[in-house]
Structures are given as structure tokens and as C-alpha cells.
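Structure ticket #2291
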Amino acid sequence: MAIKVDENTVIVFDLDDTLYNEIDYLKSAYLAIAKKLDSDNWRELYVRMFSLYRNKENVFNFLTENYEVSKEQLINWYRNHYPNIKLFSGILNFMNAIKKNNGKIGIITDGRETTQKSKIDALGITEFIDVTVISEAIGSEKPAQQNFKRVENEFPNCTYYYIADNLKKDFVSPIKLGWHSIGLVDTGLNIHYNAANFMVNEHKPEQFIFDFNEINVV
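Resolution: structure written out below.
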């Protein structure tokens, strides 16, 4: 698909499971926690932790019962570790093309400000971003329209695109506000995988892509 980009175009991305796999953040956090709790046998502890998670058991309950650590400390380590995560294929080329055509780039994401900013930094895209809207910082989560109006207020009278993955909440407001919308198809690793329940006009994006290499900037 082709997107015409100029100085009056704003391309906005969701963050988790749109720019990278959110499961990789969880794995990165578990690895950091395992190394703190058992420096000699952290690999074995990590295997146990991830297996418990995959079996929908409470990982932090296991850790507090078997190690001298509180749940509050585990949450703090989880949220504030510096993540080892990587961008999906094609995103850097896409962002470079947007900038080359004088377009603007934004991120609208739910989550804690410190955590989400560390993800953006770890992905190496801070220099590309012209506006960032994080739910904790403004006190509202998607699908609230005000999260998207923050972008409109920053760059008024533009053509707006939102690229995201979660049909339950990501596209409701962009559709109502007249934005273009693009859905990234779940690769089978997404945290949210209930798209089939929301394949209706008020939730469904205009188009789906399998990866960012499908988008051509013109």
C-alpha cells in the first residue's frame, strides 16, 4: 500500500505489539529479575518463570514464596528495568521515508510514563518522534478521544494515520475523528489476540498489513 506523505501528514504509531513484540519486554524483565535473584542459576530460574507464565500461573507469587523479595520490589524491577527489545522489520525505513518527505511522527500508547519512554529509547527511535502521548502522563487511556486530540492540537489541520494492533481499543477514536487507520496483523505472539470479537466497523481499521515493508511512502 502507498501513503502520500508531506509536511501536513502525521503518522502515529501504537507502541506495544506494533513497533515490537510486547512479549519480548516481559522476557527481558524476567531475565533481569532472574539475574538479581539467583546470579548463579539465573538461566534455570528464568526457564521456570517463563514456563509458569505460559501456563497462566502467578510468577510473582512463586518468587515471593521462594526468594526473599516482596511483590512490590518485583513490580518495581519489572517496570523500571532497561528493556532488551527490537523493532519490527521495515520500521526504520518507513520512519526515515516519512521524515524525508517532511512528515511528522507520533506515538500514542497506554502504560506508565517511565516504562514506555524506556521502551522508546531502547528501540532507538527517540530522534524520530515529534509527539508522544502516554496514558499515565495525561490521565486517560485509549480509546479516549483526548489521547488522539493531543496530536491534533500539536499538529492541527493535517492528515492523520494511526497504526496499531489492538482492535478492541486502538481504532475506535481514530475512526470517529476521521483519521486513516492501519491494523498490524497478529503474528501469533501478541499479548492481545481477540481481534475476531471486534471485526465491526467501529473497531476495524481501514486496512491490514502483515509488516511495515508493505507500506510505500510517496
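Closing remark: The beta strands are 2-3, 9-13, 104-109, 131-134, 159-164, 180-184, 207-209, 216-217.
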